[in-house]
């Protein structure tokens, strides 16, 4: 068989292999049952804020770029395997100091790094931006092993010393009730050790440091919840014995429902002769699951170490 005929056979085999691989890829894609939107997320969780969507876009295009580079590299590897196999004992021609090729090796990776750096910086600046005025200001205080949420706007002032706030306990998950479609500014602090404010649906977390002594980290961030719902929150920094159960819940309510909720938080409950708690105010609103007085996404953990009984001998 001549070299030309051999090359033709190899080309035909490569074409068949390409078709088979393409068919396998299509079958694998269809078998997953994923929607187009799910495919474009490449496993990235679905967020509920514009900041989360911006990070999703960065992730999507980073993966697309990585796949494109991977296809190029795989193609070059297959090309070398197919068309540059050993054909005889003759030593192939050697080339050294291929300056144009070396320039490509240097230039292309540099361009890739610069482009990724640029879009990463743009996304980071958007996520950290606090340029827009905040509609609601909340101070998040972490402590071993729970959370306190204080609404610091003047309109949520109870008296000269107190603001509307919610504190968690061993028997009650604290609810951070927020309006959807509004800019919320969070100020983070800790009463004891380092904790971390993490809401998976925000695709965002930030450590909380002891106040007023802390490092130079920016302890303020801002976002907007676009979707009503209940979103679990967790501590993402190992902080002691009950770190794993230091949960809270963000409850996103439509703006008008949130206004009614806050109006109740400033009033006295006729049944208890005390100000409405978060649970009592939500129950009073009676607007379905979104107004559940207890957390929907998580539940309290029994911290009594003697509550269980051993099942072994």
Number of discrete helical segments: 6
Contiguous uncertain segments of 5+ residues:
none
Q: How much of the residues is beta strand, in percent?
A: 15-25%
Q: Which range best describes the helical content: under 10%, 10-25%, 25-40%, 40-55%, 55-70% or over 70%?
A: 25-40%
Helix- and strand-based class? alpha+beta
- According to CATH, what is the topology of the largest domain? Immunoglobulin-like
The total beta strand count reads: 12
**Shape annotation:** elongated
Instruction: Report how far apart the termini are.
Output: 77 Å
Order of helices and strands: HHHHEEEEEEEEEEHEEH
Question: Looking across the biggest beta sheet, what order are the strands in?
Answer: 3-2-1-5-8
Main CATH class of the largest domain: Mainly Beta
Rounded to an integer in angstroms, the radius of gyration calculated over CA atoms is 29 Å
Overall number of structural domains: 2
Largest sheet report: 5 strands, mixed
Mean pLDDT: 85
In CATH, the architecture of the largest domain is Sandwich
CATH superfamily of the largest domain: Cupredoxins -  blue copper proteins
Identify the notable features of this structure and list them briefly.
single chain, 313 residues, alpha+beta, Immunoglobulin-like, 2 domains, five-stranded mixed beta sheet, 6 helices, 38% helix, elongated, membrane
């Amino acid at each position: 068989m001549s070299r030309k005929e051999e090359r033709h056979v190899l080309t035909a085999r490569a074409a068949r292999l390409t078709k088979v691989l393409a068919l396998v890829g299509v079958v694998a894609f269809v078998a997953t049952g994923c929607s187009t939107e799910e495919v474009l997320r490449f496993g990235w969780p679905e967020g509920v804020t514009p900041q989360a969507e911006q990070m999703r876009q960065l992730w999507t295009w980073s993966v697309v770029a990585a796949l494109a580079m991977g296809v190029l590299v795989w193609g070059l590897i297959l090309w070398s395997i197919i068309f540059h196999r050993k054909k005889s004992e003759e030593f192939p021609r050697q080339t050294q100091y291929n300056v144009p090729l070396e320039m490509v090796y240097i230039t292309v990776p540099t361009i890739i790094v610069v482009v990724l750096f640029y879009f990463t910086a743009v996304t980071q600046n958007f996520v950290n931006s606090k340029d827009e005025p905040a509609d609601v200001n909340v101070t998040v205080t972490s402590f071993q092993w729970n959370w306190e949420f204080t609404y610091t706007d003047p309109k949520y002032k109870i008296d000269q010393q107190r603001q509307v706030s919610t504190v968690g306990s061993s028997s009650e998950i604290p609810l951070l009730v927020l309006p959807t479609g509004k800019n919320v500014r969070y100020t983070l602090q800790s009463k004891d050790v380092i904790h971390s404010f993490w809401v998976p649906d925000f695709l965002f977390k930030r450590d909380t440091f002891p106040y007023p002594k802390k490092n130079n980290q920016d302890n303020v961030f801002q976002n907007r919840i676009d979707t009503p719902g209940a979103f679990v929150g967790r501590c993402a920094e190992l902080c002691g014995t009950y770190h794993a159960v230091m949960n809270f819940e963000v409850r996103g309510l439509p703006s008008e429902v949130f206004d009614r909720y806050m109006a109740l938080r400033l009033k006295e409950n006729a049944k208890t002769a005390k100000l409405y708690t978060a649970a009592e105010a939500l129950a009073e609103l009676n607007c379905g699951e979104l107004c559940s007085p207890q957390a929907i996404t998580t539940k309290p953990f029994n911290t009594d170490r003697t509550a269980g009984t051993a099942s072994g001998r």
